[in-house]
Amino acid sequence: MTVMQERAFEMIKRLPDDKVYYIVQMLEGIAGLIPEKGMEAVSSEQKAYENLQRFRKCNDVEIDYKAELLQALEDKYEGID
């Protein structure tokens, strides 16, 4: 334990319980800002991508895109000869 941590513990020990409550609240807020060990900081772009992935639907049906394109082109240009 570092000297700073020991000093913090001693200060907290001397505080009354109602004041310790506020210290705990502040520490919980600060802990949310610090990434856990072994956990990489996630960029805002990665968070946005992960958020979008939650809304993505899985589709088990295979689509033949070339056939779809040919059909769409035939429908669009069937009157042109």
Write a structural description.
- This protein is mainly α and 81 residues long.
- The chain has one domain.
- The chain is built from 4 helices and no strands.
- The protein has helices at 3-14, 17-31, 44-54, 65-77.
- The longest helix has 15 residues, at 17-31.
- The radius of gyration is 29 Å and the shape is rod-shaped.
- The termini are far apart.
Tell me the layout of helices and strands.
Blueprint: H1 3-14, H2 17-31, H3 44-54, H4 65-77
Structural classification: mainly alpha
Rounded radius of gyration (Å) = 29 Å
Which residues sit in consecutive blocks of at least 5 with pLDDT less than 50? Answer: none
Q: State the helical fraction.
A: 55-70%
The tally of helices reads: 4
Biggest sheet overview: none
Alpha carbon gap, first and last residue: 84 Å
On the 0 to 100 scale, the average pLDDT is: 83
Q: Please tell me the total number of domains.
A: 1
Order of H and E elements: HHHH
**What best-fitting shape do the alpha-carbon axes yield?**
rod-shaped
Count the beta strands.
0
